[in-house]
Amino acid sequence: MKCDFCGKEISKGTGITFVRKEGTMTHFCSRKCEQNTLKLKRKKRRVPWTQEYHKEKKIRQGGQ
Q1: Residue 39 located in a structural domain
Q2: Phi first, then psi: what are they for 2, rounded to 5°?
Q3: What is the domain count for the chain?
Q4: The predicted structure's pLDDT at residue 62
Q5: Do the bridges between strand 25-28 and strand 16-19 make them parallel or antiparallel, or are there none, so unpaired?
Q6: Is residue 9 a part of any domain in this protein?
Q7: CA angle 52–41–18, rounded 5-degree value
Q8: What would the DSSP string read from start to end of 1-62?
Q9: Rounded Cα distance, 3 and 42, in Å
Q10: Would you give per-residue pLDDT tens digits along the chain (64 residues)?
Q11: pTM of the model
Q12: Which terminus of the chain is more exposed, N or C, with fewer CB under 10 A?
């Protein structure tokens, strides 16, 4: 399973699972990822240490 914010692999038996009222589940590898998503409401493509940021950066640079 992967962290829904940073994309890092979560080993079995660790991490945080957040369940919303409508029933959707969000998985986090650490408190840092949880706070960035829920409290600070940051977009993962704008935070430099996430995998999504690196994907977007590669696209912006022309796929180099």
Answers
A1: yes
A2: -110, 155
A3: 1
A4: 83
A5: antiparallel
A6: no
A7: 85
A8: -B-TTT-PBPPTT-SEEEE-TTS-EEEESSHHHHHHHHTS---GGGSTTSHHHHHHHHHHTT
A9: 15
A10: 999 999 999 999 999 999 999 999 999 999 999 999 999 999 999 999 999 999 999 999 986 6
A11: 0.86
A12: C
